[in-house]
Each structure stands twice: as structure tokens, then as C-alpha cells.
Fold this sequence. Notes:
The protein has about 350 residues and is an alpha/beta fold. The chain has 13 helices and nine strands.
Amino acid sequence: MSRARTARRIAAGAAYGGGGLGLVGAAAVGLVLAELQFAKRTVGTGLPDPPRADGLYGSEFAGPEPGPGPLRLAMMGDSTAAGLGVRRAGQTPGALLASGLAAVAERPVELRNVAQSGAMSDDLDRQTGVLLDDGRPAPDVCVIMIGANDVTRRMPPTQSVRHLTSAVRRLRLAGTEVVVGTCPDLGTIEPVYQPLRWLARRVSRQLAAAQTIGVVALGARTVSMGDLLGPEFAANPREMFGPDSYHPSAEGYATAAMAVLPTLCAALSLWPESDRLEVARNEDMLPVAKAASAAAGQAGTEVTQARGPWALLKHRRRRRVAAEDLAPAEPSAELPGTQVAGT
């Protein structure tokens, strides 16, 4: 069965309350998950909690005249969104995205990160409540990174997609733009060997495609994490892996954040939009399921709904931003009720 067809079945099951849908044979899935859990034990855990990066970024863009106020950026998801494995707040994906967004928008950005290390998609309801139910204005845009723990802990993919789409729906109804970084390619984890690496890749990419189908129908955009870090990790693991040899290092998180930034800016109409598709960059307009399947295998690919059952598959060119604006920066102001970690 093609990845697109499987992803459609998972997304349909999520939409209509279906139960778990097997991606591959049960015995094969068991072997994959056992190998992934072994990989986690092999590389080790025990990392300290990620630094809190909540605060104001790009305060230098606040002019003397009263303006519209800072853009409100939120981060949700698992350890990838939280930035587990780095020591400085400015090295987390949220801080990097806030700094980059401020530089492009030339406007301060207020960051709130409610991501939780170890979270699965069923924690997104709680995280969404934290963002929307505390009396503060809803975020202008929210980045969600989720999926890897759903695979390793055997959450049925229909349930995974259902939890994700429920959170996205709540955010969209609140007026928040949403960008989802889909499930990463678990076949890039070094201690997982063939043929289990191939199976891990298949399972995670099918979930990523189903996530895309589910959320683009709600007006959100997705960016494929895929094997984004795979080539860099293989070529230079000492720099791209963090101290546990499992989570990304500061350089690894920066690679992921800069893949998300163009889509984040486009969601806020800060990035040049063009109806012309660049065939040389493998851009296309495809049925949603086919676009989702193609994106799952091409890291850094954006999928956004165009019209009807069609979606745009885009590889956005990165605009030039001053290096000092993208350098890791610490928040310049705290938000009420939060702690900002020092260096």
C-alpha cells in the first residue's frame, strides 16, 4: 500500500473516530519499537531540564512611538520543541525562531514555550489549555513539534493525529496561525540497524504524512523534519548530537529552526508569496495526500492547502538575514510567572 493511501486511511480514522490502524505488521512494529527503546538506553538519558527561554526577543526593534506591540510566538510539543540537550536559553529552537522572526518582521517577538520533554500528542490538549485559558491574548502563531514519542511508545497513529488536529483546531479558532514540524525520521538514529532502520523510517514517515493531511485541512502549514538532521549527523556527529548522543546539539537545533523559519514567516505574511512553482526545486501542486507523502520523504518541505483537495508543496528560499540577528540570543525581558535561565 502506498504511503499516500496509508496516510489517508490514518487521517480518515482520526477524523471519524477510528481505532488504531497498523502501519506495518504487528511483529515488525514490535521489533522496531524494541530497537528504538534499546537505542535510547544505549545512548543514555539523564539530561537536565531544558532552559526556559520565555521572554521578549528583538527589543531593539521597539521604536519610540507606540506601535502594535510584539508578535506573540508559542512553542508546543515534545523535547525537540523544548530544546532538551542545550544549556543556554538562546540555543533552544524557540529562542532561535523568535530571534529570526524578530529580524524578518523588524518587530519584537514575545515567546512562550509550553513544550514538555517526553510528551506525546495526547499532552497537546493540556499545552493548548495553558496557552489559551490563562486570560492572556492568544498567540499570533504557534509552532508544534510532535510525533517521535508517539511512535516509540506505540500510540495508535489515528489517536496521534486526532490529538494533534484537535489542538490545531482550538488554536485556529482562537485566531492563531499554526506551523507543525511533523514526526522526524526515526530511521536516522544510529543504534538502529537494517532492516529495522528501514521499518522505523516507514512508520515515522507514514505518521508524518498523516499529520500533514490532518492539519492542512484546518488551515495550518507543515514542515517536514524528515531526515533533516540525518546527513549532518552522519557527517559530523560530534557537533550535531548533544551530550546524550540522541538529542540534537545547539548546531542541530539551529538546523531544524532555520528550516521552519521561512514557513513561520510565511504564515504571518512576512515572506514573499508566489503563485509560480519552481519545478527545479521540486515544487508542485498535488492532491493533499500525495503532497503529504512527498513531503515526508523530503526534509524541510512545506505543505499548505491551496484549494479544494489540492495542496502546495514548497521549498522556500531563505531570505538573507544579518548573522548577528540569527545568533543565539537570550530573552531581554521576562514574562510574568516565568523564569529565564542564565547562561
